[in-house]
Amino acid sequence: MRELLELLCCLALALLLRLYVVSFMRVRGSSMRSTLHNGDFGLVWRLPYLLGKPRRGDVVICHYPGRRMRRIKWLPQAFVKRVIGLPGETVEIIEGVVHIDGAPLQEPYLDPDCCRYARSSPARILDKDEYFVLGDNRDHSNDSRYVGPIRRRAVRGRVVCILWPLRHGRRVR
Asked: First-to-last CA distance in the chain?
């Protein structure tokens, strides 16, 4: 009986850690190239967003409204994106350059080869609970330009490092 109780406690602790502290993710696709690559396996830190709010520049795991996994219809599909716009800000893209409240945003993490098409998007004022997320590969990313901003509850955690493959292993910024 004692062993069963210990096993149940360990399982409960593991579940709590997985739900509220840390999880893992695998990158599928090229929307975050050159920061993340297809097949990268990384660590997601969930705790900071239970206690605080996402910051500009954070690479996050998020869900888009109404998007579900293909094979498991009840499970929301996860996306890896970068937080660009924060609640209450005005986000506008002018010829490929993101402007926050009228000022151009410095984005040193972008690879010019992934942002060749200078598209524009109209100004959008974010609600008090909305975030604007974009992929680093602006030419091939399904993000807030198309699906709109996401709510705070849709941000599930911050990608902190790549664990595998070892040649890509590093802290994510």
From this structure: 47
Contact 58, 158 (CB under 8 A): yes
pTM: 0.84
Name which of 70, 73, 80 is nearest 44 in CA terms: 80
What DSSP designation does 106 have? P
For the record, the structure tokens of 32 come out as: 């975050």
**Which one-letter amino acid corresponds to residue 170?**
R
Nearest-CA neighbor of 172 among 46, 18, 34, 64? 34
Q: What is the pLDDT along the chain (173 residues), one digit of tens a residue?
A: 778 787 787 787 777 777 667 788 888 887 888 788 888 999 898 878 878 899 999 999 988 876 555 666 556 677 899 999 999 999 999 888 999 999 999 988 888 887 777 788 888 999 999 999 999 888 888 888 888 899 998 898 999 989 888 777 778 88
24 CB-side CA count, 13 A: 8
What are the phi and psi torsion angles at 102 (to 5°)? 90, -10
Interstrand relation of 90-94 and 130-134 (parallel, antiparallel or unpaired):
unpaired
DSSP 48: H
Active-site residues, by number, are 31, 81
Residue 84 and residue 74: Cα distance in Å, rounded?
A: 29
